[in-house]
Specification:
Length: 423
């Protein structure tokens, strides 16, 4: 996986660079993530791996689209034991048709009471129109984003959605985007032997439990002590059975906004959704923080302020987003994937977003060297006051008349609004 902290991809070095014209590679690099190796401890692997599931209802397999629709309209729920079998799955576009288990609402009218006077039977009302299930709005279930977190009061079994955190159920971690457990060798030089809890795990004692925030916000909590060899660790901690803040000096809230100097948006003008997934950083660095842009929808993208956010070994960091092919659900897109499909960490494109040295630096670049896959729609950064131009179309990244199939492009903005437009 490429660095989640370089603002501008191949175009500039890092958010601390004063000039946008540098053509360096990423200054801050992390290990490339791969499928997990076999581990004798069943509950852990050192990096998160893909989770593939099949769904069974009354002994019969049903498609993922039927499951998603059933959950949306309330006709299906997951069993508490979550018993699912592993199986490969292919890409199935989201369906707008109701699943086979859907039962339309019915109405009934009582017959009038007999009286000596002749009466007419009451007319039956027209059946109500079937409600078309609306797409899920991730972040809508979170409330209290501006409320202080009750430090040390909530049980570790409680996901804190009432304090702004957005539950990401598809990770299989009770809504958490990632759970990290430091090993016994951790000391004053940093955490060692950090284990990543896999799907089916939970926020357990002494672990750091990371979470997503609504679009326009980002998590504010990570411990001062980080990995001894450069690993990032993020989230709140489960200590003595209670959830505790790890960075109260940054904020007593779980979520915080990025810079207020500029606004960064993403607009989807396509006929299908586009899942935009932010790297969970600091943390497991998997792409599990969702922004589900629906057709015709405009959403916020958080733009971290380099002077007021996580520092990696003293260096400033920014946000990295993965842009997935149109029609791929956030459940499929915003998690660890495989090379069999161009989504997840194999999504074709990355967006770099960060604010430093008096300007926002915004970039579009190829997800290299992970994949050479290309999106089949256009992406362009537009807005008044933007310095430079940046557009992806037909497999080419163009800054003005200069185009490349591999080198991305960058613009800057000192004030106002910039929008990534999908068309």
């Amino acid at each position: 996986m490429k660095s989640s902290i370089a603002v501008l991809g191949a175009a500039i070095a890092a958010v601390s660079a004063a000039q946008p014209a540098h053509r360096h590679g990423h200054q801050h690099l992390h290990k490339e993530k791969r499928a997990p190796a076999a581990n004798p401890v069943a509950d852990y692997v050192t990096v998160p791996g893909p989770t593939e599931v099949v769904y069974v209802l009354n002994g019969m397999p049903i498609s993922e689209s039927e499951v998603q629709q059933g959950i949306k309209n309330g006709t299906l729920i997951f069993a508490k034991d979550g018993a699912l079998s592993s199986a490969p799955k292919g890409y199935v576009p989201s369906s707008t048709q109701p699943p086979s288990s859907y039962v339309a609402p019915t109405t009934s009218v009582s017959k009038p009471v007999d009286t000596p006077q002749p009466t007419k039977e009451a007319p039956k009302p027209a059946p109500p129109p079937a409600n078309k299930p609306s797409p899920p709005s991730y972040g809508s279930g979170a409330t209290g984003v501006d409320a202080d977190f009750p430090d040390g009061e909530l049980s570790c079994d409680t996901f804190p959605s009432q304090y702004g955190a957005v539950a990401v159920e598809w990770t299989g971690l009770g809504g958490w985007t990632g759970v990290q457990c430091p090993g016994s060798g951790s000391g004053s030089s940093g955490m060692d032997n950090i284990k990543t809890v896999t799907s089916g795990g939970r926020c357990e004692e002494d672990s750091y439990c990371s979470y997503a925030c609504p679009p326009g916000y980002q998590k504010s909590q990570w411990p001062t002590m980080q990995g001894a060899t450069g690993q990032s660790v993020g989230g709140i901690q489960c200590k003595n059975g209670k959830l505790q803040l790890t960075n109260p000096g940054m904020s007593k809230k779980l979520c915080m906004k990025g810079t207020d100097k500029v606004q960064v948006l993403v607009k989807n003008t396509l006929s299908k959704n586009v899942a935009v997934c932010r790297t969970d950083y600091p943390g497991t660095e998997s792409e599990t923080v969702p922004v589900d842009t629906q057709p015709g929808q405009t959403s916020n993208l958080t733009c971290p302020d380099a002077d007021n956010y996580y520092k990696w070994q003293g260096g400033s960091t920014s946000a990295q987003y993965y842009v997935n092919p149109a029609g791929v659900s956030v459940e499929d897109a915003c998690q660890w994937g495989t090379s069999a499909n161009p989504w997840g960490n194999f999504a074709p494109m990355n967006l770099g977003v960060g604010y430093s040295n008096g300007a926002a630096w915004l970039s579009i670049f190829q997800n290299a060297p992970t994949t050479d896959a290309k999106l089949d729609f256009c992406v362009e950064i537009v807005g008044d006051g933007i310095s430079g131009s940046c557009k992806y179309a037909n497999g080419q990244y163009c800054s003005g008349s200069s185009c490349s199939s591999t080198t991305g492009c960058t613009v800057s903005l000192s004030s106002g609004t910039a929008t990534f437009v999908f068309s």
